[in-house]
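testing teh design pipeline on a random one, pls ignore if ur not involved
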């Protein structure tokens, strides 16, 4: 059968009735030539006007290729979802069922899941439970040798080898067996104490999951567990507790909400709306909960923190922690200012964007880094202020923090400050001269 378009008693186009791409092309060409409106074409071809709009847009972006129908993604029962993958791993690791056909039978009878042998083999290979087979090999001949052996384990070991060393070998690398601790009771006791110390860095729920993880469980965010000892022994959470007077919010503690924001940044989420892509059940393990907070809860929590108006107090607290724990080095301070454009709806003054050379709404980020270029202090201020005004303020602030960190007055005064030409000013140099004179008077005892 042939379909055709007749305009003014003349054939305009012909195509096979089953050729959907040609029919769409006819709609696009009639619209492009001004021979019909979108609503008229939709009525004439028996399609919805939204479809006509989509055809036109696809042709504009991709040409003829945009009008060719593509088959949708796999929708058969063998498609391996996270739930099906978990059932396969439970069947193998918990129920100790070996053999692809036996696993397939168990999935069908016990879980009512029809999964193909290649899919089962692929899941096992991804989790290090069998060798991946070359293309074309029959899957019913695959053997899963050494399923429950610790050799060639592909999961990431979370033993933190630097914490526990025995006879030059790590406890967590599988090289030490029971006989290694038979020499003395003290060696065994040291090993158990090291094990307990490392596991204490994790919450109870995280420790349960780590045991499951070693057997091949899957979690997209399991790499975040590597930061748990660092956070547990650092000053990140303690500084937040000292400054922010919000103990719980929407059922989550302050620590849980702040840890969520920490891992939010670690895993590269660009915005709170982007956080909707996270698996709440998997992300929740990082904070020791069954589910992580929603992006609505995080947004409202940040709004509550903003109302406390303690941002600079928190910045100073972190700077003191950096200096006290050796994360920042005293002696040299580099200062610079960076303009941060603002594209929101609130009222905010305009500043000068130094790169684009145009005025824009925004704020200034005045940043201080040490001699290893590690940032440890910053100020976010209105665009009405400039670097010339902030250099003396930053100098006074870092000296005050240095004294709180336990540095001597002489070492605090011997601070080298570097800045670019934006800070060159007679007023600034007069301030620096007065500061130097005050320091000389203090040394000579002339100033009490």
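output:
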């Amino acid at each position: 059968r042939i379909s055709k378009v007749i305009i003014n008693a003349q054939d305009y186009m012909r195509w096979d009735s089953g050729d959907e791409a040609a029919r769409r092309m006819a709609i696009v060409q009639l619209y492009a030539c001004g021979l019909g409106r979108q609503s008229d074409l939709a009525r004439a071809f028996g399609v919805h006007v939204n479809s006509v709009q989509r055809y036109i847009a696809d042709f504009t972006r991709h040409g003829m290729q945009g009008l060719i129908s593509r088959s949708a993604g796999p929708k058969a029962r063998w498609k391996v979802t996270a739930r099906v993958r978990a059932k396969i791993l439970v069947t193998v690791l918990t129920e100790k069922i070996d053999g692809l056909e036996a696993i397939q039978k168990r999935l069908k009878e016990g879980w009512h899941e029809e999964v193909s042998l290649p899919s089962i083999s692929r899941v096992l290979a991804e989790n290090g439970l069998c060798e991946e087979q070359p293309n074309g090999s029959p899957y019913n001949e695959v053997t899963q040798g050494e399923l429950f052996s610790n050799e060639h384990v592909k999961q990431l070991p979370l033993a933190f080898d630097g914490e526990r060393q025995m006879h030059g070998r790590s406890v967590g690398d599988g090289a030490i067996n029971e006989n290694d601790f038979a020499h003395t009771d003290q060696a065994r006791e040291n090993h158990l104490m090291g094990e307990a110390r490392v596991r204490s860095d994790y919450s109870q729920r995280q420790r349960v999951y780590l045991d499951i993880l070693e057997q091949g469980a899957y979690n997209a965010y399991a790499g975040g567990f590597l930061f748990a000892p660092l956070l547990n022994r650092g000053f990140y959470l303690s500084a937040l507790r000292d400054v922010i007077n919000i103990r719980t919010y929407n059922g989550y503690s302050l620590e849980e909400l702040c840890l969520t924001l920490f891992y939010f940044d670690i895993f590269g989420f660009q915005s709170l709306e982007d956080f909707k892509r996270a698996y709440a059940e998997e992300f929740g393990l990082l904070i020791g909960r069954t589910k992580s907070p929603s992006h609505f809860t995080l947004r409202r929590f940040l709004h509550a923190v903003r109302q406390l108006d303690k941002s600079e107090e928190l910045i100073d607290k972190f700077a003191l922690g950096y200096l006290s724990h050796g994360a920042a080095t005293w002696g040299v301070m580099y200062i610079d200012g960076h303009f941060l454009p603002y594209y929101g709806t609130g009222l905010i003054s305009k500043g000068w964007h130094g790169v684009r050379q145009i005025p824009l709404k925004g704020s200034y980020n005045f940043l201080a880094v040490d001699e290893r270029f590690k940032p440890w202090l910053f100020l976010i201020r209105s665009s009405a202020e400039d670097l010339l005004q902030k250099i003396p303020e930053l100098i006074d602030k870092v000296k005050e923090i240095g004294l709180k960190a336990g540095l001597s007055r002489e070492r605090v005064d011997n601070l080298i400050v570097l800045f670019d030409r934006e800070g060159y000013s007679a007023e600034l140099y007069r301030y620096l001269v007065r500061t130097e004179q005050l320091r000389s008077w203090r040394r000579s005892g002339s100033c009490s």
